[in-house]
Write the structure tokens for this entry.
Amino acid sequence: MSLAEDNGPERGGDEILAAEYVVGVLPADERQAASRRIDSEAAFARLVDQWEVHLAPMANAYQPVEPPATVKPAIDRRLFTGGAGAVAPTGGLWASLAFWRGLTTAAIAAMVIYAAVPFINPPAEAPQMRLVASLAADNSDVKYLAVYDAAHGQVSLSHVSGERASDRDFELWMIEGQNPPVSMGVVPVGATSHIVITPEIREKLASGAVLAISLEPTGGSPTGQPTGPVVAAGDLKDI
Amino acid sequence: MTPQDITKLIVRVSMKDRAAFDMLYRQTSAKLFGVCLRVLSDRAEAEEALQEVFVKIWTKADRFAVSDLSPISWLVAIARNHAIDRVRARRQPASDIDAALDIADPAPGPEAMAVAGGENERIYRCLDELEQDRAAAVRGAYLKGESYSELAERHGVPLNTMRTWLRRSLMKLRECLER
């Protein structure tokens, strides 16, 4: 099988580049360029991930070495100093001075990348039931991380990858056992979004329920049932 | 700790759970330090790198959801890639690098200890299909983070020849892995 025939020369080039990146042989500038593409191009990131999976068994050869005891406190200083102490700030991560300070000292360059990564902020006190689902599907690059926070009666969605078409919306559904899907609402556009859950759905949301996202006309399904393809789904799990 | 336990810890870390972060550090820092040490072959730099690796893990834990890697492999990939980035950013005369690599290569090939389980056999079987020196180049590059120029020097071939070699080897490897 020839890559060039099957996928065109460009695809073959990316395949090689992904492998070279994972093996680690690229010079600094090419490595940085590849790293930027991993952050911005889902298809390229997938190629890299596949190569990481292929080659990962070789990493068994790395022998564990206990790091000195000074390392962990140094990490904590980088991430958490600035007055917050051991308690996560209640204002949420984005409002946390400690977080921004930690991030600044950690790496300015990293900030540019990770500012784009959405965060989900659990409340700091009163531990409550929380369920999490990783939503994905074959033949779709749409991926979300969903966290159900029972204390606030809302689902927080962290958009990981995949775009909706301009005249379409993503709609979130709960599927419980053999029952028909129940709409939880249209997923707001954005890196992080929250959907407040009605009391009826709250009662049924439990570990084992499935969350699914379908592609629907703008504003959501006109019928009350999914009309478009399911682009991502996953089980809710206790954490 | 089972892979499921580590997955749970990573998910909790993505929600900024510090207790989970502490536990994840306790469970995985020795392995990740081993990775940094092997690639960087300098203790002080490996300690610095390990700090940065865990800062990355804290900030990008939610990315684990989109990877097909097992949780420990995902963590190792972060450490390995970070250590290689650091090594590439160094400006060092080649002779120093050679000296460092000599130190970094511990006695009887730890690769030999790695054979266990079906997935392992697959990659090693595929490496065995390559010519011996090319398989060694792929392994050396992967484990120690050697660059094309370092490999070319060690194998005594021009840089472009090394690049062509390795690329062909990687494509053969891929065909074998997907067979």
